[in-house]
Amino acid sequence: MLKDPRVVVTRQLPERIEARMKELFHAELRDPDGPMSKSELLAAVVKADVLVPTVTDRIDAEVLEHAGDQLKLVANFGVGVDNIDLEAAQRRGIVVTNTPGVLTEDTADMTMAMILAVPRRVVEGERLVSSNQWEGWGPNTMLGHRIWGKRLGIIGMGQIGTAVARRAQGFGLSIHYHNRNRLPISAEEELAATYWESLDQMLAHMDIISVNCPRTPATYHLLSTGRLSLMKPDAYLVNTSRGEVVDEAALAAMLKQRKLAGAALDVFEHEPAINKQLKELSNVLLLPHMGSATIEGRVDMGEKVLINIRTFVDGHRPPDRVIAKLIE
Ligand code: 8YV
């Protein structure tokens, strides 16, 4: 049992969550907001009993090895834990938790919006109107591609992938997926989903690919030049997972050469930097990592963080403990 734990939060969280954080713990909140520099992170782990980082903090081996013995818990505000060196945390006996479940539906909604937006040229159409260049309806104006009846290939059929599949079914897409483990037959039947053991083969047959797997050592550049080249030239790529799963430079080059029809990307390899070529293309929709950005979602994430910390400091196993081996 940890008495009056010092909780350092690296970013400004919803007001309601920060208020509760202060009631429950000796909380050090971020004001003004902004990502912590490496030196600020190093200073934080020297004094914190609990650190609450986000995707904008790299909690790498250097940071964790610099931590004082008092640091016992890293309670990530986010489901992806690729920003944390889990092995290094384990070596130091530091527990890591995340916030699964509560951002599934929001992220799936955004993924679906992106699946619809690029083939139907939603953003191009908006730009045409807002730049005063629209000259009126024409039978051959702004033609995109039909969604209904196309094949959607989901890479990573976890909670978010499954939530995307449920939505996509309603839009008449046939569901295909590649995952480390095949789903139970009942789940496949419910989604009318076809399992592809070979990612390469699935890529070659899909009209739209949605990346929904976590970023782990095994998924880094999973969509390499070679794999992207397997996709049909009239196929689209959507990524709401992590930028590092796709070789961004290779993707940009292929889109430029029209070897792919288009892409919708909410995440990037070197956020907030984005490959310059991507910004110059009209068949690409670029969003600022906002897949889970709803007010309700952020509050739910904060609640999860509070519960994880509270349970831990009370001497129990926190509900969302992340075990290094399980996610690799
Ligand atoms: C979050 C995300 O907004 O939770 C995740 O893994 O990618 C985002 O949707 C972000 O990570 C918060 O830290």
Describe this structure in words.
- By secondary structure, the protein is α/β, with parallel strands linked by helices.
- It folds into 2 domains: 6-102 and 294-327, 3-Layer(aba) Sandwich (Rossmann fold), CATH 3.40.50; 104-286, NAD(P)-binding Rossmann-like Domain (Rossmann fold, 3-Layer(aba) Sandwich).
- It is 38% helix and 13% strand.
- It is built from 14 helices and 12 strands.
- The strands form 2 sheets. It has a 7-stranded parallel sheet, with helices on both faces. A 5-stranded parallel sheet has the order 2-1-3-4-5, with helices on both faces.
- Strand 6 (151-155), helix 7 and strand 7 (174-178) form a beta-alpha-beta unit.
- The protein is globular.
- The two termini are 31 Å apart.
- The structure holds 2-keto-D-gluconic acid.
- 2-keto-D-gluconic acid is lined by residues 54-55, 77-80, 103, 291-292.
Features of the shown structure:
single chain, 328 residues, alpha/beta, Rossmann fold, 2 domains, 7-stranded parallel sheet, 5-stranded parallel sheet, 14 helices, 12 strands, 13% strand, globular, binds 2-keto-D-gluconic acid
Provide the CATH superfamily of the largest domain.
NAD(P)-binding Rossmann-like Domain
Task: Give the proportion of residues in helices.
Answer: 25-40%
Biggest sheet layout: 7 strands, parallel
The number of distinct β-strands equals 12
Instruction: Give me the CATH fold name of the largest domain.
Output: Rossmann fold
